[in-house]
Specification:
The protein has helices at residues 35-44, 56-69, 81-92, 106-109, 114-118, 136-144, 171-183, 195-202, 244-250, 259-270, 273-292, 315-323, 346-371, and strands at 15-16, 19-20, 74-78, 97-102, 123-127, 153-160, 187-192, 217-221, 231-235, 299-300, 308-312, 336-339. With 372 residues, the chain is an alpha/beta fold. The protein folds into 2 domains: 2-30 and 274-371, Aspartate Aminotransferase, domain 1 (Alpha-Beta Complex); 35-270, 3-Layer(aba) Sandwich (Aspartate Aminotransferase, domain 2), CATH 3.40.640. The strands form 3 sheets. Strands 3-9-8-7-6-4-5 form a 7-stranded mixed β-sheet, sandwiched between helices. The longest helix has 26 residues, at 346-371. It is globular, with a radius of gyration of 22 Å.
Length: 372
């Protein structure tokens, strides 16, 4: 991807000359499918099932979501986060409406205009707030900025949990933002690509981070949690879900063999398999951040509240790490982003820290030599 680095992108091949490309921290998308999800797909592959979501796996997965959130909700399964976000936002808006989102949000920076496309032109209004979190005052200002017919009417507040900077909205923060939105007759959409990480890291219940706080629609990511190709769109207000299945079909998101998308969710929710993996990812992110900031020249840019670690690296160290084959992103957050996935091992973290330390030590030695 062109934005993977500030420098020209390397070949997409596995090796960089004599150096092996290392994708362990590039994204949690680079990790594989966790064993439980893989086994579930194999089990779903046995025999014949009804198609287009009428199978028993999809029915059971949907029921498990209702138990997970402790409420009646309508659940739909799509292939990716762009579809989940874009189609759910489109279901909440008319083309003359607008969606308020943070200026670093995924719907703004990484959906290639899909929210606007699928809603036939709904405008994104961008707000600000520290750490990637919208501030209630900024939301209120955007809503009340103009009330005339010449301006797109604010209809949806879109929140990311966790944010693109890895920070997490606390329940009280969510309630304040949702209260502002509801006061003006708006709906609340949550981009929860890493929602399960927010649940694990906060120690709160799924309902406390969603519908109890005022969220109407949640796009819950499975890909980042170890599922292969599936995101869930959860409508906590069934009225808002009317004809959403038609949107999915029209957008090419209705899987004919839906059981392969939904069976992994059963293993993840029924046995809470995701918890041990995501706790590991969270622990390794903290472990990495705590040790990285002790290396000369390295600074932590944002609090580590999920599996993302944003660091300032000296340019020379940054180049050295890339020459060693390490892959990571610079496209958001003002520094280098390192992601710990469900599959990341402590040995991976130690290897990365080792290269960072080795470079810093060499730089220090050169400095001492030049002083002589």
């Amino acid at each position: 991807m062109k934005h993977a680095s500030r420098r020209p992108a390397h070949s997409a091949s596995i090796s960089l000359g004599e150096v092996q490309a290392k994708y362990q921290f590039a994204s949690d998308n680079t990790a594989g499918i966790c064993p439980e999800a893989w086994t579930a797909i194999g089990k779903a592959n046995e025999g014949f099932e009804a198609s287009y979501g009428m199978d028993r796996y999809t029915e059971k997965a949907s029921d498990l979501f209702r138990a997970y959130f402790e409420t009646q909700c309508e659940v739909f399964f799509v292939f990716n986060g762009t579809a989940a976000n874009s189609l759910s936002l489109a279901s909440l808006c008319q083309s003359y409406h607008s969606v308020i989102a943070h200026d670093t949000s995924h719907v703004e920076t990484d959906e290639c205009g899909a929210p606007e496309f699928f809603s036939n032109g709904t405008k994104l209004l961008l707000g600000t707030g520290a750490g990637g979190k919208l501030a209630p005052a900024a939301v209120e200002a955007l809503i009340t900025k103009r009330q005339d017919i010449h301006y797109p009417r604010p209809r949806v507040l879109s929140l990311s949990q966790p944010t693109e900077l890895g920070t997490r909205y606390q329940p009280e923060e969510l309630k304040q933002l949702c209260t502002v939105a509801k006061k003006h007759g708006m709906r609340v959409h949550m981009d929860g690509a890493r929602f399960l990480l927010a649940v694990v890291s906060s120690g709160l219940t799924p309902k406390e981070l969603s519908w109890k706080a005022g969220v109407d629609v949640l796009c819950l990511g499975g890909t980042k949690a170890g599922i292969g190709l599936s995101e869930a769109v959860v409508f906590f207000d069934p009225e808002l879900a009317k004809e959403f299945d038609y949107r999915c079909k029209q957008a090419g998101q209705l899987a004919s063999k839906m059981r392969y998308l939904t069976a992994p969710w059963i293993s993840m929710l029924e046995n809470s398999a995701y918890e041990k993996y995501l706790r590991s990812a969270l622990g390794l992110a903290s472990f990495f951040a705590e040790r990285a900031v002790k290396i000369p020249g390295v600074r932590l840019l944002h609090p580590v509240e999920s599996n993302a670690v944003f660091l300032y690296l000296p340019d020379s160290m940054d180049l050295f790490l890339q020459q060693q084959g390490w892959k990571y992103y610079h496209f958001i957050g003002g520094g280098a982003r390192f992601m710990c996935s469900w599959q990341t091992q402590k040995e991976d973290v130690q290897a990365l820290l080792g290269d960072m330390t080795r470079y810093a030590a060499g730089l220090s030695q050169k400095s001492k030599s030049s002083e002589k």
